[in-house]
Amino acid sequence: MKRRAFINSGLTSLCVLPMLSFTSLENENPAWLIEWIKIHDKALPNFKSNKITHSSNKYVGGYFDGDEIPSPHSTAGFIAKASMLFACEESDFYNSKDVLKDIEAASKALLKFQHSDGTIDLLSTNFHSTPDTAFVLENIIPSYKFLLKSKVKGSENAIENLKSFIKNAGEALIVGGVHTPNHRWVVSAALTKVNELFPDQRYLDRADQWLAEHIDIDPDGQFTEKSTNSYSPIVDRALIDMAIGLNKPELYDAVRKNLAMSLFYIHPNGEVVTEASNRQDRGSIDFMYKYYYCYRYMALLDNSGEMAAACRLIEKTCTPQQLAGYLTNFLENPALLKDLPASKALPTSYAKAFPYSGVVRIRRGVWDCTLLSENAAWLTFHNGNAVLQAMRISGSFFGKGQFQTEKIEQIGDTWVLSKSLEGPYYQPHEKDKISPDGDLSKMPRSLRKKSEIQTLQTTVKVKEIYAGIEVEIEMSGTDNVPVSMELIFRAGGTFAGVNEYTKRENAYLFSGQKASYTVGKDVISFGPGRIEHKGVQLRGALPAMEAPTVYLTGTTPFKHTLNLS
User: Fold this and answer.
1) Considering only CA atoms, which of 347, 248, 336 is closest in space to residue 292?
2) What is residue 362's three-state secondary structure?
3) d(CA 498, CA 508)
4) Is the pLDDT of residue 463 over 80?
5) Is residue 45 part of a domain?
């Protein structure tokens, strides 16, 4: 399909992007976009095995999820992919009568999933869910547009079904509540999109009601949930949609801030830092492709070399299958096909604190280190694809000796993490605090006097050395407390200089001067080690992770310096 032909098909979303001017509109779509279309062509038949075909099933024509439960999300996913390909000339399924028949059946089933209040269920957790209805509209609204503009005879029933679903969902969006901060913006973006199709002041009023709470972005440039691998890019996309549809360009400011901050959350191999998230993506392993649309949109809007460089990095480090997930956006908005501006160098050498997020990022070319507050896995170290995914330390101190710091302080060239613990004993209640019936619930421990108070002070100091970092750990206070330190590596590499601990799976003891972990051509060297006992899993410590773990052990007073490079 030529760009001019697609633009003339009438997708109105282009009219709200005057800042993205068109050049060479008669050119064919670029080869990479054609590749994306073919990726979706190959994927569409995979839905067939999950299609609900038995006529006795209420949701016949819809689709099962992976657990063979009829699912509005799986059904909407099919409609989205099938409608997009049905309307795309380069697709093998362009104007396919069989595909149109399946779309119509699926759209009929989708209406059966929808409750009378306009909502759907997320069957794994949320019922009569306004936010999940909004998420599904991300698929259904483009599907409606694609079918409407295709003007193919026989598509009328599917179009009417989707129109009914969208308008019913709009009623839910006007009144429904949310669970999490990002839901406000997903719902508001959906309201914006519904209003573009079926203008109604109630949609705009509800979006404004959510927006009156202000965008929850901190001075670091991070959203409340700190969800770098899930919800931050979702919020960025939602804000872009609202900025366009509500004519509120001021909403771009939060997107700019988050995308600029995220440039410092990229590991040298292109992965995104996730350990500071307070959502389910915490500690997940993934690349930056979920930000691709946002970086590309803002690169073109602002003529930004840094945003363009981020796009090119994502293209280099992510697969075409991952990027093809944004095909709908590019078909809706051909302005995104414009060539990116020239790249400006991305930050690759820095030591930068994000105090509101509780994160310090240190990167020097091919290696980087992340320090984290409020996290038992308070340090990570990457050298290419060799990854120390967590450093942890604990003491068997009254069942609460797992170390994590409340804050990270910079003192000169050193980053300091610390934690103080008390382990008290308790005296008998004074007479006036004793309940006559002896009911302990009426005599809380907080009213007892403390005695024999034991203490444990942990201080971690981190500073840069040549080609790496030095970590100095000191634990003091009560003497003879067993200490266990964990170096938890990502699976897939090989160790040298450590000894396998046969009593535990994935466990290694390190007592020598130097050891290493190698993944392909990438190596992390570390040392020296220390083994004073074999109590690697202490009472009150977090359970071992399912990953290759090197242990160092000792007792308090404990002081040890470990180098990573």
Assistant:
1) 336
2) strand
3) 6
4) yes
5) no
